[in-house]
Each structure stands twice: as C-alpha cells, then as structure tokens.
Amino acid sequence: MELISLNATYPELQYEDYFMNVYFGAIARDSLNSSRPISNPAETPIQINEMFDTVSYDKGACILKMLQDFLSEQVFQKGVIQYLKKYSYRNAKTCGTAWQIFVLKVIYLPEVFALLLPDPLAVQYFWHIPLTYITSSSNTVHRHVLKTKTDSLKLKEGVVWVKFNVDMNGYYIVHYEGNGWDNIITLLDQNHTLFSPKDQVNLIHNAFELVSAGRLSLDRALDLTRYLQHETNNIVLLKGLGYLESIYHVMERRNISSVSEHLKKYILWYFKPVIDRQTWSDEGSISERLLRSDLLQLACDLRYSPCIQKAHELFSKWMGSGGNLDLPTDLLKTVYSVGAQTGAGWNYLLKQYSLSVSDAEKNKILYALTTSRHHEKLAKLITLGMEGEIIKTQNLAILLHAIARNPKGQRLAWNFVRENWKKLLEKFELASFSIRTIISGTTSHFSSRDELEEVEIFFKSLNNQGSQLKITRVVLETITKNIRWLEKNLSSLRNWLLNNL
Predict the structure, then answer these.
(1) What pTM was estimated for this model as a whole?
(2) For residue 228, what are the contacts with CB-CB under 8 A and spacing of at least 6?
(3) Is the pLDDT of residue 335 over 90?
(4) Which of 94, 308, 377, 483 has the fewest Cβ atoms within 10 angstroms?
(5) Which cofactor(s) are needed, names only (predicted)?
C-alpha cells in the first residue's frame, strides 16, 4: 500500500522501479526451506518479535502487487476498500499456508509452451498461479491462471519466443528449459530493446536465482550479462552489475585472488565506458544518481585509478576545509571510504562523526570507517559501539554487519559476537531486530564447511539464550547454500572468465 500511495502522490519519483529491491529481498529469503507463511501463529514474546521480518512485510507486499496487476487496479482498489470496511477495528486472519517460491519450467514445442511445476519438495499443496506473458508476435499482455502442475499454452503459428511474468509483477521464477535460455541470450545480444527494462531485470534475476538453486549453469547466467555493455537503462545496469559485484565480493572474502582479479579486470574492461561517463555531482534523475553512486563506489572498490584519484582529491579538499566543503551528497560514501584508507583520513572521519548532528551523514561516515583494512581500527569501532557514547548502542548491530562485510573484519566481527554474546543480550532483547541483524550480518557471508560447523556449534551451545531463534536456521541454511554455490560454480566461473577476457 505504501508503493501505491507513493506512486499516486509523487509519480515523478518512479518509486515502482525500485520496488524490485523489495521483490529481490523477499525472493531471496523465501527461497530458503526455513521460510514461513506470511501469517503464522505467534504466542511467546520471541515468536511475536520474529514476525516483524522480510516475510511479513516484503513478501506480503509482493503478493499484493501481484494481485493488483492480475485483477486490475480498479478491481483491486474495490477489494481493498471492502476488506478495510469488513475488518475495521478488528484483526484480519490470513491463510495459514505458505505461498512458496514457485519455479515455472517453460519448454517450447511447435506452437505450444509446456508449463511445469515439477518440484515435489517445494510444497505439499498447490496454489493457483496468475501468469502473465508476452510473445514475439504480440506485446499484448496475455493472462493465464495455472491451476494444475502441468499445463500448456497454444500460441499463434510463428511465435519464436515467450516471456513470462511481464514487468516482474508476479511472485514466481521462470526457468526457460531446453534451448530457452540460449535463445534469450541471443535475443538480448541482438536487440535487448525487445524486452522492457523491467523484463530485462527479471530475466537477469531469474537466471542467477536458478544458478543458486542448481537449475542453471553459471556460465549461462554470465553469458546473459554480456549484452549489458550496450545497455543504457540505469535500472538494468544496476541489477546486472550488482550480481557481478556480489560474486566479486564472495571471491574477495574467500581470498580466491586468481578469480577475483580476473573478475575485477572483466568488470572494468566491459563497463569502463559507462564508469568514465559518470560525473562527480548530484545532477540528473533519481535513477541516474543511483547508478552514479553505485558505479563510482564499485569502481573505487575495484581500485580503478581515475576513481581513486578523484575521490582522494575531493577528500583532501574537504579535509583541508575543516569539513566545511560541500561534497556531492550521492558520492559521500565513496569519497569518505577512499579517504578512510589512510591513518590521518580515518582519524579525521572519526572526529567528524563525533561532531556531526546529521544522522544521514553519520551513517555514511560510519560505513566509511568500517572499510579500513587495519584490524586495530575496526576493533576500536567495536569498542566504541559497546561503550555507546561516540557510537550509540542502537547502531552497534549495523556496525557489526558492516565490519563483517569487510574481508579484513569478517572474522573479527564474528569472534566478537561469540565471545560477547551475554553482553549483547544485556543491551538488546533476544529476538529483537538488532540481535537478528547481528546474527545474520556476521555469519550469512560465510561459505566454508569449517565456518558452518563453527556457527552450528555456537548456536547449539546457547540453549535458551538464542538457539531457539528462527534466524539461526536461516543463517545455517544460507551458509550451506553459499558452500554449495562455490563447490558447484567456482570452476565454471574461473573458466568463463578466462574465455571472456
């Protein structure tokens, strides 16, 4: 409802384009076996606290958006009005059965597309799935309710391709089996404008999610991103680069330098033109500003010399002005992060953090401070967070999460949590958002069997001081998923990079 209201009030913000981040977060969480229904029985304080999470809010929003699209905005609005009137001043009950992530298999036969839902482990029940699709012969959005596990669509003669989940309004993933993905890759290479920007993002997202599920090879998903060097849409570029960046950080955290260096070279080689086009300013549309912020941050993370030099120049001028120089707001994190890599810069940022009265600026400075490569500086931040004076206690969870994202700080953050668990529970209620953020933020990036065993042993040892939390099952499953991803895809990634450089 927030999305609908915001779009109606401020259409110029194009907020719907960024709802996809909500969608991606919901899919990622809901793809785990530890997911749950949107509405679930909750009796104890811990169970009630745990209900305030991604599933309740983001997945719920995605289901509502799918209904709005399929029913039409007018019908959906009438239904919402009736719903609100019926349950005014009361609580409403939702269906207790979980809507799981469905992977829809699509197989092309002459003039027929077979629709399959073959995974018996996913569900023991069945939902009617509202499908939408377009074809090579028509941009008209066709609708079909999938009521059985197997179905087929008869299409006009001459149809070459079909794209399901138009504009990513449906809450399901589509697997184009057989030569389906090869055909899509060819289409994108030849003319990516055949698909709308949202449909392009949807294809990229589905491909990489299927890689994580073990249903598509990584080289196919990476092949699909090659066309991005010709892409001009900011939203599509953000998503495509986001996957490449996340893979790079996995390699960096595991210290697999042979692969991370090749991937860095590939990203800078393919996307250097779009990086070089970015200005160090706040001008442009919202999507242009978001792309600029993310691109220049990535370029500096990859140690791209022109980016590092410009950020150093701006940071030196800002530092020389006593912090009074106005820097481009969108690029503060990038400039601060580069400046934080020197001892003098880091110390100056910490001083500015203590003086600033702007929460937005403090958050950017704190992020930059956590990017330091020096162990003692990261340890100092944790000490300050525990003291709660310079860095307030309510920011400790975010601080630990940020430090854990730093390859030089991931073990530091996790070891701190293990050694200080009781102290953390004195500061934060068990099952609170902060505790859940600390648990997931310091462990969900792990990707080795030794780390999995370490995390599992620790949580088992907690008994009633944390072992019963649902988030522990989530992170254990996430680590297991990370391990399988690496074992299955590392060799393919290495070979693909060698063949594409």
Answers:
(1) 0.86
(2) 236, 237, 240, 241, 270, 271
(3) yes
(4) 94
(5) Zn(2+)
Distance CA 26, CA 31 (A): 8
Q: Does domain 239-500 match CATH 3.90.800.10?
A: no
Closest CA to 170 of 149, 145, 204: 145
Helix (H) or strand (E) holding 312: helix 305-320
C-alpha 239/C-alpha 313 separation (Å) is 29
Supply the mean pLDDT for the chain.
86
Contact 32, 478 (CB under 8 A): yes
**Residue ranges covered by each domain of the chain:** 2-86, 103-215, 239-500
Number of other CB atoms surrounding residue 136 within 10 Å: 16
Q: Is residue 213 predicted with pLDDT exceeding 70?
A: yes
Identify which has the larger pLDDT, 168 or 51: 168
In sequence order, which residues have a C-beta less than 8 Å from that of residue 167 and are 6 or more positions away?
Answer: 69, 196, 198, 199, 202
Residue with tokens 């050694």: 419
User: Quick one: tokens of 491?
Assistant: 């060799």
- Phi-psi region for residue 466, left (φ > 0), alpha (ψ -120 to 50) or beta? left
Q: Is the separation of the CB atoms in 172 and 165 below 8 Å?
A: yes
CB 459 within 8 A of CB 477: no
Query: What is the per-residue pLDDT for 37?
Result: 63
Are the C-beta atoms of 203 and 195 separated by less than 8 Å? Answer: yes
Contact 340, 369 (CB under 8 A): yes
Instruction: List Cα–Cα distances, 253 to 333, 361, 404, in angstroms.
Output: 21, 27, 10
d(CA 78, CA 73): 9
- The alpha helices in 388-448, defined as continuous H runs, are 396-405, 410-419, 421-427, 433-443
Burial of 72 (0-12, 13-18, 19+ CB in 10 A): exposed
Is the CB of residue 443 less than 8 Å from the CB of residue 455? yes
Q: H/E/C letters for each residue in 251-303?
A: HHHCCCHHHHHHHHHHHHHHHHHHHHCCCCCCCCCHHHHHHHHHHHHHHHHCC
pLDDT single digits (tens) 356-389: 989 999 999 999 999 999 999 999 999 999 999 9
Q: Are 262 and 497 in contact (CB under 8 A)?
A: yes
Give the amino acid at 69: D
444 within 8 A of 410, measured Cβ to Cβ: no
Neighbours of 226 (CB within 10 A): 14
**103-215 placed in CATH 2.60.40.1910:** yes
Domain 103-215 identical in fold to domain 239-500 = no
Q: How many residues does the chain have?
A: 501
- As a whole number of Å, the end-to-end CA separation of the chain is 46
